[in-house]
Specification:
With 439 residues, this protein is α/β, with parallel strands linked by helices. The protein has helices at 12-20, 38-50, 74-83, 104-114, 131-137, 151-157, 186-196, 201-205, 209-235, 243-255, 263-272, 286-298, 327-334, 341-355, 392-404, 432-437; strands at residues 27-31, 59-63, 91-96, 117-123, 141-145, 161-166, 172-177, 183-184, 302-309, 314-324, 359-365, 368-375, 380-388, 410-417, 423-424, 427-431. Helix 3 (74-83) runs parallel beside helix 4, helix 7 crosses helix 13 and helix 11 crosses helix 12 (286-298). The protein is globular and about 70 Å long.
């Protein structure tokens, strides 16, 4: 059942979330971009069950990427599971890439109603949680949003170990070693992470550029063809029909992560920079570009972040930002050239906040902007991100938006380069490596 079981690497952040909902009535839905580790997470959950008293006959696994289940319709899926149910015991259903089965939600809803079972599904598209799906399982499902590796996971996957020691001044200093006990500089390892990104498959092939490019190309091609072009045809939509236009939109968004933008401005810039050709009768419409971007958001290639007016206490409908799910994928698309490190760091911090369960928005305060407002039910943080705080002029500019906000919520400045991380004007300055490793 667990082929390659010994090769499974831990993803405790997500596994613990699944375990927390084990044996509840909720269908556990794991979403995320292809190859981010969803299938491995299901196997980790199976291994957890087997280690805690569940027997193999109670576990039913189907991976719809396999030829074995290619072409299976919803009725066949229901019958397949029904025939394999254990007698007088609870079944555990693991349905990988379930979106490949048309009207799969009918079967899942029937499993929940008809059988004594605990259900786990994965999908590589946000369409899984569309209003159509919600009609069937409203209030009876929970979503586990999976991302590529964090910096901490990246170190673990590549065999590095982080130790903490107190320094003479009472602070905590992190030391990183490989399995042979050799010491490594944290900043150099972070630079490696920012180059290769966090796709788990990189750990299998090693930190070799040629192999990484092949792996990232495969991910990109699979997402574009299978999760965008084919999916749109299957849903009956006709907007996403031009792979060349889709790539141009992807390239533009990848090159403009962290920049305030709008659908209209993207359309105009693509035309102005001759990345889009004018049609014979008209320019590509805003609605067309919106459909392409919507498909990229649904496939978890890009994430959109909205702006929040701190004074008005409302979300603004225009001028948000886009971030790419994996920096390595961005580097593959743009050719690993020298890029805006400030926005790259911002991208990494954004996804780290999502991993930690925060709702994240851009903070607008008058004519000033805070990079992130990170909120949960119980807390709120204002976070500014920059490459370096060593230049006094840069420090003054970056501090200004945080100083202007007069409430008592925590204010943090994150930088990849700080001479002396301290607290100034009530603002905590944090080294990027420390932020990423302090889970």
């Amino acid at each position: 059942m667990l082929k390659h079981d010994t090769e499974l690497r831990r993803r405790d952040l997500y596994l613990n979330r699944l375990i927390a909902f084990q044996d509840t009535d909720s269908v556990k839905i794991i979403t995320g971009i292809r190859r981010c580790g969803k299938s491995s997470l299901l196997k980790l959950m199976v291994r957890h069950l087997l280690n805690h008293g569940i027997t193999e006959d109670q576990i039913i696994e189907l991976n719809f990427e396999s030829m074995k289940f290619r072409g299976m319709d919803v009725e066949a899926l229901y019958q397949y599971v029904k025939e394999r149910l254990p007698e007088k015991k609870r079944a555990y259903l693991f349905l990988d890439e379930i979106q490949r089965v048309y009207q799969w939600q009918d079967a899942v809803n029937s499993f929940r109603v008809d059988f004594n079972c605990d259900i786990y599904v994965t999908g590589s598209n946000a369409y899984l949680l569309s209003s159509e799906y919600a009609t069937y399982l409203a209030g009876r499902s929970i979503e586990i949003k999976m991302l590529p590796l964090s910096f901490s996971e990246f170190l673990d996957f590549h065999g590095y170990i982080v130790h903490e020691r107190k320094n003479p001044l009472g602070g905590i200093k992190k030391h990183i070693y490989n399995k042979n006990g050799e010491s490594y500089d944290a900043k150099e390892l972070l630079e490696t992470y920012l180059l290769f990104g966090g796709m788990p498959g990189i750990a299998d092939i090693g930190l070799e550029m040629d192999k990484a490019l092949i792996l990232l190309d495969g991910i990109y091609s699979t997402v574009v063809v299978r999760d965008i072009l084919e999916r749109e045809k299957r849903k009956g939509y006709r907007q996403i029909t031009d792979p060349d236009l889709l790539r141009k939109v992807i390239m533009f968004l990848a090159d403009n992560i962290g920049n305030i933008t709008s659908i209209t401005s993207i359309t105009n810039k693509l035309i102005h920079e001759k990345l889009l050709e004018k049609n014979r009768n008209s320019n590509p419409s805003v609605h067309t570009i919106q459909a392409y971007i919507g498909a990229l958001l649904e496939s978890f290639v890009f994430y959109e972040i909205k702006r929040y007016d701190v004074k008005g206490k409302e979300y603004l409908k225009t001028l948000g930002k886009y971030y790419i799910v994996d920096i390595g994928l961005r580097n593959y698309l743009l050719g690993f050239r020298d890029m805006d490190m400030g926005h790259i760091i911002e991208n990494v911090v954004y996804f780290e906040l999502l991993r930690r369960g925060y709702d994240v928005s851009i903070g607008k305060f008058g004519d000033k902007e805070v990079d992130f407002i990170a909120s949960t039910v119980n807390e709120k943080k204002y976070i500014q991100v920059t490459e370096s705080l060593n230049d006094p002029a840069t420090r003054e500019r970056e501090f200004a938006p945080l100083i202007a906000i007069r409430d008592n919520y925590e204010k943090i400045m994150i930088a990849s380069d700080i001479d002396h991380p301290v607290t100034q004007n009530g603002i905590k300055m944090v080294w990027l490596v420390d932020f990423l490793l302090n889970n």
